[in-house]
User: Fold this.
Amino acid sequence: KSPILLFTGPPGVGKTSLAQSIARAMGREYVRVSLGGVRDEADIRGHRRTYVAAMPGRIIQGMKQAGTRNPVFLLDEVDKISASHQGDPAAALLEVLDPAQNHTFTDHYLGLPFDLSEVFFIATANFVQNIPAPLLDRMEVVEFSGYTEGEKLEIAKKYLVPRQAEEGGLRPDEIEIADSAILRTISGYTREAGVRQLERELGRLVRKVARKIAQGEAGETPVKAGEAPVVLTEDQVGELLGRPKVHPERAAEYDQVGQATGLYYTPVGGDIMFVEATTMKGKGNLVLTGQLGDVMQESARAAWSYARSHAAGLRIDPDKFGDTDIHIHVPAGAIPKEGPSAGITMATAIISALSGRAVRHDIAMTGEITLNGKVLPIGGVKEKVLGAVRSGIHTVVLPSANERDLEDLTPEVRTKITVHFAAELGEVLAVALRDATYEDGRLLFKGDDPNAVSRLSEHHTN
Assistant:
């Protein structure tokens, strides 16, 4: 009996293609059924024959199409199923995807048990959270993460460029795209975890070159079919594709008081973000802007409370909290932001603004914070670290509990970065603030007497 696999990951990373490759490698028939938008239980189980236009469900129709009892059966977009008054298709799949039950699967149209136990079922999904728990429990989850720029380059050279050249009416010996040109296309014209958008942009490049070859305009001299290939350089990408569509964040150029660099994760990859904090005369209020979700706002309040309760150890004047308002802003205000992983970034920005000490601009950080300053683990470490490297930052601060997640990174990326692991906020501040160290629970700056500095574990409320 084959295991029932669930391929999860962002669009364009090759989940459906891999299922086809598995079928080809095993020498089995391949059947694909798209479940996106299905909301009728009869689509899975079929209609009873008493109804007009009754027909079998998609599972039995797929088996008929395969013509064998042991095909590779792909259930595409299983997370896009929705329930309606006509029943819940996800509930009908519970029997199909249970190896202990599917040898007696009964389609309403057939009215007889049908053996599905020899079928190799593979399901695909973008978001596991949208799949009901009982259905998810029956499948073995295989996670697909986004590609690095180096991986996209190799995919483009080996598969995408030759395929697009053929579709554009060119022979492989008529066009050659330099590695730097492909990398420019990846960074300036695509923002995705997979390679679909990259293939579209490479297709545009190839078609424009094909037109130039047809008109004899490619390069400085007229080009005729059969002559040397047209070589596309990095500079020509801008001429052919127009101005860049994607403007990723770049690392700040200098240290600033009240500005810390955080890392965030989206289904299309990781990137850096800036958290800004500034103080002004007021009554001790905390102002949050930048379309922050509830969890992110709670992280900011926890960081604010930590700074107040540990003011002595952080060298913050306790009187500041009574007559000072602090404003926290996360730029890109049109984009909603949510999640706990900006906790230590917000805490660093707040403490920097209140103490007047600059935060290093060449460090990015991610981690959840507790009220006592503990740093808790987060997800998406691989994508976040890759986002930092793309932005020009090579030193990152991660929670200690995420140390094993670095195994997901390629050796090439691991050699480029310096990682500091932190279990407490004091360890984060020792790395993020200039001339700071963390010893025996105390945050020390150059010239400090350790015996005169309070431990951060000691609370001093004002």
Remarks:
- The longest strand covers residues 269-281.
- The radius of gyration is 28 Å.
